[in-house]
Amino acid sequence: MSKDSIIIKGARQNNLKNLDLELPTNELIVVTGVSGSGKSTLAFDTIYAEGQRRYVETFSAYARQFLDRMDKPAVDSIQGIPPAIAIDQSNPVRTSRSTVGTMTELNDYLKLLFARMSQLYCHSCAQEVRCDSAHSIVESLYQNLPRKTPLMICLPIIVPHNFSDEEVLKLLNNQGYIRIHRRSKQRVEVVQDRLKLTVENESRLRESIEAALHHGSGRVLVYPLDADREAGEALRFSTHHHCATCDIDYSEPSPGLFSFNSPIGACESCKGFGRIIGVDYGLVIPDERLSLREGAIKPFQTPSNEDIQHELIRQAKRKKIPLDKPWKQLSKKHQQWVIKGDGSWDEGLWFGVQGFFDWMERKSYKMHIRVLLSKYRSYTSCGSCHGARLKTGAFWWRLGSASDATKGLNGANRFVPPGCTLESSEFERVPGLTIADIMQMPLAQCSAFFTDLTLPGSLDDAAQLLMTEIRSRLGYLLEVGLGYLTLDRQSRTLSGGEVQRINLTTALGTSLVNTLFVLDEPSIGLHPRDIDRLVTVLHRLRDAGNTLLVVEHDPQVILAADRILDIGPGPGKQGGEICFYGTPAQLLKKKSSLTAQYLNGTKRVFDATQEATQQTVTKGSKSIRIVGASEHNLKNVSVNIPLNQLVCLTGVSGSGKSTLMRDVLYAGLCRHKGKGGQTPGAHEALMGHELIDDVVLVDQSPIGKTTRSIPATYVGAFDAIRKLFVAHPESISRGYTVGTFSFNSGKGRCPTCSGNGFEHVEMQFLSDVYLRCADCNGTRYRDEILQIKVLGDVLNLQLNSKVQAKSIAEVLAFTVDEALAFFAASPDVLRCLQPLVDVGLGYVQLGQAVPTLSGGEAQRLKLAGHLVETSGRRTKKSSTKKSTKKQSEQGHGILFLFDEPTTGLHFDDIATLMLAFQQLIAAGHSLLVIEHNVDVIQAADWLIDIGPEGGNAGGELVVEGKPLDVAINKKSHTAKALRDYAKALASKSRVNPSKKPKQKAADRVIQVHHAREHNLKNVDITIPRDKFTVISGVSGSGKSTVAFDIIFAEGQRRYLESLNAYARQFVQPASRPDVDAIHGIPPTVAIEQRTSRGGRKSTVATMTE
Description:
Strand order of the largest sheet: 5-18-19-3-20-21
Helix content: 25-40%
Largest sheet: 6 strands, mixed
Shape: globular
Number of domains: 7
CATH architecture of the largest domain: 3-Layer(aba) Sandwich
Number of strands: 37
């Protein structure tokens, strides 16, 4: 055994079958295998759980209660495991306040940078607002005015409302001011001094300016006088952020002013969310082809609002508004009258649709009114901040020069603050960019802006640190292929792959060594073109001295590994064994491995024999047409989506695929089908929507959040199974109903655990404990309910032949495959369960909690649910004898929208998924799929490629057509990926393993450069790793400073940087030590002397827990 290895003995977590493994450290190890084989169980639930648990155990009991604590895995022993950091796909964020900027903490650095280094420009005159001093005012006067110019220095005073003129004059006289230059309402300009601008008068001028600033609350007016002693135009100065020219006050810049999560900076209308909920007139008037008489105003067509419809027609006749003209043909004036009205109900005038909803709002304490209002509401951009989330005062502080702004924007429009009165030409000349401009720029442009940014004056240490952090974090985000995201993108809208790659940048930023990084499919959402960049990042983490354990299905990542661990051979109970463990070259030669067969081209997801099943798209084919889509980065895109076929939407990350499918197509079709939801993205027209019955979006969002949600209930199989138990003679005699066999309600569930099967015990300082229920032993039901047992199909039963009758709890423990065999004689159960097998979920238990399913499994479970629905429709049609041709033509089918359905799927699972897609198409439905998997792209009937790049460089239709036609396109990155894939298959050799640089002894050290903490005097220290090093010296020489305040503090701080911000606020990591750089530092543990004694209640037992 090598001493530099993680040695695992007897791993039995979930379906793992007593595995013994030796994983070398400092290598990139990819874990692969079919879905459900046990990859995540080994990587996350076993290895990561133990690595993280052991390191977190070194923290204080108080700190541990705020960290993600994982249970001790079922394993005999794990030796040599380093501290572990998990970078997975989970996106726990659901709040709209979380953005890419807050996740990466770039918002925190930006608000500090703006508070320290930004410049203020007046929103009325566009001039820079400076804070003057007596010295700067005097210098300005000598520079800008000719010598011997007579000057009159005045101080402006605002007279309080409760003072009379006589009282004010008396007070001024008492202070020596006897001359008043001008009076207007509440403002008095008092003369401080008159003098000529000469060298001799400089000290007198300075004293007069200082006195005027002191008595004038930081403001002073300087009037040049002409030959007749007449005052010219005043020169205005202020020591505050006050535009003297326009007499406008501005608040002092603080970090809170630039944060939408602070009450100081958050927009008062939307509270920092950027959106407000209100009446969506697109939902109120869904069909603009209808006239007022035909019912264009949808809420007025209900029986309860019939009187309002009559009132509208009566009032429209009075105003001579056409009642039979379609809504879209009415003039803007007439449309505004219908919506806004011209008076109130009490005046006998039309109160408008808006008045109707205002009236309904006053009755919203009633439930049915709230339900009605929800149908016509949606989120719209906040009018007060234009969606930028901040108060207007933050938008006049700018960073950089005019040239910096031009380069940074790269042709994009500037953010125009609300209430801006400047002409557009004048506004464009204002130097720099606002924080809203930076938030709305793609990260690639943002990085270029900060790289070239020139800030006024010399940077202090704090500003230099801020700039360094911002540049490095932006650089890491670009390296993992996220240059198309913007900082104001909501975190909850990110895919699992994007969240994981953002977290990967945090790992890069920590610069840790001797750490175990566990990743879950980091390639999700990446176009084949960008995979190489991801591989480079993974290799850099490995070469720094870390161990990487990556669960992955992408062939480019698999073949870039140092070692491959293939777990299988099947899913669920059929998996949990090691099928292969070795190098990529060895894997390609192993004929028995399913993974190897797909990698070396022996097997293919899309075989040439399947090409005959591909649909042919002709000009006469039915299709949905999107015209002029221009939402986000889309540039007037018009595309046809053929129906009854598999259409693939491709393009590099950030090119605009999701915008086109989700924001434009899905939201637009929902609007046409009368569904509520978000406002459709900008487009000119959506034609052909009448050719489909409905639209369904199948994404990877979680299905259920509680353990009560199980696959059997989701596909409807549990209802059919319970009916079989109710039909049992014993059930009939006892009077049992379907509800009796439910663990969610009724009298049949265990009263102790309420049908959960376990009891949740909260432990304040340790992981919460889930104990198997003592009364039902985890079965969820009462004992008398378990006495009812149904007999399975004897012929197909693959279980023990002696035990044929099963209770409801035993049935829930079946896998789908076992249940199919058991209920082979029950058509209703088979109809619900067969789709689960069709989508490759035959290994899932009927009673498995849905939240434990992966994102890919959840998406396939949704697909299975839709397959059940379609099979149900076919069953009804076949049972009805009057299924005429006319009726079949009326059913147009459903348009299914999938967002990367191959996520988390092995090659063999993708082949199964493609068969399920064919079932949907055969049933008369249509599929539009966003996909990066080359096998799926090849199998599509029609491709639509958006690009050519991400962000502002994308958003165009590059090419559309059949896969073979698209592959010859020279501009498309997808076409190149198709050609490269074909070449790789033809050559039968796709392995290109990376050469790992050997670590020299000189590399295995911790290097501290120029340590200045406490009494250290620019010390350079080199400490060998994996050695026993003693630091000695006289008391007070700096030993503890080096050991604890620098080495330990920095090692722990870097590990904690990988945790979420919520956890860090409680753990309170040490501040960054005063040192230029520390290289090669692993996570650290301190075992120090106890400096303070506990109270009388502190014992050895409480200290050791």
